[in-house]
Amino acid sequence: MSEPLLVVRHLSKTFGGFVALNDISFDVAPGERVGLIGPNGSGKSTFVNCISGTLTLTAGSVTLDRRRIEQLTPHERTRMGLARSFQLPRPFGSMTVAENLAVPMLYAGRGGETTAMRLLEQIGLADKSDKLPRELTQIELRKLELARAMAANPRLLIADEAMAGLSHTEVDELLALLLRLSEQGVAIIMIEHIMRAVMAFSQRIACFVAGQKVADGDPQEVIRHPEVLKAYLGE
Amino acid sequence: MSNTRFALLGMLLFAVLFASEQLVTNQYVFFVGYAVLQYVVLATAWNILGGYTGYVNFGTAAFFAIGAYVSVAVNKLYHPPLPVLILVGGTASGLIGLAMGYLTLKLRGVFFSISTLALAIVAQAVITNWAFVGGSSGAYVIRPRFGPYGGPFIAYLFTIMLVMAIAAVVLARSIERSKTGVGLAAIRDDEGAAEAYGVPTLRLKLMATVVSGTLMGMAGAPLPFYVAYLDPPSAFNLSVAVNTIAMPLVGGTATWLGPVIGAVLLSLIQQAAMVTISSAVNLLIVGLVMVGFITLAPNGIMGLLKKRRPAQ
């Protein structure tokens, strides 16, 4: 395996006396597809927020492409190639679909109208480019969320429950989309509860339980791991 | 239209209005015109932070009055020409904006607004106790009879305010259409998402606060010459803050034109009410108009004009 793109070492995050994340170490290789699973409240979203900079770490380090980033602001991390989508779509409500993509394009990397349109074509929103977010359906909003993250030209994309609440075919549609993005060389961390999607997508799966990483490795082995089974199915 | 062409159009407008000044014999026209233009500057300045960025500033009176009082103080010391006073007053308010922004911009929404209100109260307390500029008993400024290029001084004040109003609008429009404008709109829509998609939110908010504060201070700097007697209650008048919020809301906050329409409309109504009814009815009118627009047309007159898609 080549040198990892993202290196997380001994990351801890506490809120007052509550330990949300405890001594997590985690790597992602360039272009790798990693699934991150865990029950509700296990710290997955806190982990995303710590890596993307919305939360500050209590302890530990985060390195992207050999550069320490845990002291950087979220927008600086985005410019370095770390993009995330939000669990609940958070589009810029007063802007059209195309203008929504213009924000990361202007501020975090590649630009030009053609790229925005190409991205929208790729993601299947080309005919909606001049629509406002409130005119979009739920799946279209999820696609916009992913397209906007892609517009930042990331090397690592964190898709935070991009598929929650979607129908079977819609999940397949987003899955195909994420696989296409992966083919372009973007490393992707997929945080998801829909096991069918995670299993189909991931080359590797990590599982968080109560702020600890209990398993990390081959998907088939992880879902048979006793700690993982215990967390999901009980004793 | 490009920024350059828009600026040229502004200069043309200035030339036309400046030429027509020579035809005006009734000085009252300049007094009214000055008041209208002053609110064009204030409303435009407020809108850069309040409309584009979504941070509601209740402290307009502080920036405005600081500009006016710095102007009084510097004038007392050195008697420089008015444009110099405007630059100094604007700089002072801009610096206050920078300091306030640095301290308060981590606060979101209503908490930021409350802190701007607090700033106005603190600033008024400081000025009221500053004996050099007259303290609570106010300061008299002798208005020269004639402007530096001949003609009545009030015509000169009007001309200066006209230049500032046009410059403020040109500046606001160019910000609105720039990369910065896109970033500010993203902050207004969802600050967390804006930061996550590469927008340097703190820096842009500070820039908006400084530009907004500077313009407000510049609008306040000629005030001592306009009123000839300045005391804290009139400089920090509630009507300044209320008007400056009401005008963009009435006109529409998404584009540069909204505050201009709102400022012209509301200040003309108020000037008319002041002459025909009484000056006390002014705030009542503003209040009623504001309530009417907030309930019936939340996107203002511009929103009514183009029902869909405000920010283009």
Your description of this structure?
The complex is a heterodimer of chains A (235) and B (312). Chain A is α/β, with parallel strands linked by helices and 235 residues long. Chain A has a single domain, classed as 3-Layer(aba) Sandwich (Rossmann fold). Helices cover 37% and strands 26% of the residues of chain A. Chain A is built from 9 helices and 10 strands. Chain A has a 6-stranded mixed β-sheet, with helices on both faces. In chain A, helix 4 packs across helix 5. Chain A is globular. The termini of chain A are far apart. The mean pLDDT of chain A is 88. Chain B is mainly α and 312 residues long. Chain B has one domain. Helix content of chain B is 74%, strand content 1%. Chain B has 15 helices and 2 strands. In chain B, helix 1 runs antiparallel to helix 6. The longest helix of chain B has 25 residues. Chain B starts with a helix and ends in a 7-residue tail after the last helix. The model of chain B has no long low-confidence stretch (mean pLDDT 89). Classes of the chains: A alpha/beta (235), B mainly alpha (312). Chains A and B meet through helix 2, helix 3 and helix 5 of A and helix 7 and helix 8 of B.
Computed Rg of chain A = 17 Å
What's the level 1 CATH class of chain A? Answer: Alpha Beta
Give average pLDDT of chain B, whole number.
Answer: 89
Task: Please list the strands of the largest sheet of chain A in the order they lie side by side.
Answer: 6-7-8-3-9-10
Question: What is the subunit arrangement here?
Answer: heterodimer
Structural class of chain B: mainly alpha
Please give the order of strands in the largest beta sheet of chain B: 1-2
Care to count the β-strands of chain A?
10
The CATH architecture category of chain A equals 3-Layer(aba) Sandwich
Q: Mind telling me the C-alpha Rg of chain B?
A: 19 Å
The CATH superfamily of chain A turns out to be: P-loop containing nucleotide triphosphate hydrolases
Q: Briefly note the CATH topology name of chain A.
A: Rossmann fold
Could you tell me how far the N terminus lies from the C terminus of chain B, measured between alpha carbons in angstroms?
A: 13 Å
Helix content of chain A: 25-40%
Quantity of strands of chain B, as a count: 2
Indicate the mean pLDDT of chain A.
Answer: 88
N-to-C CA distance of chain A:
36 Å
Task: List the helices and strands of chain A in order.
Answer: EEEHEEHEHHHEHEHEEHH
Count of individual helical segments of chain B: 15
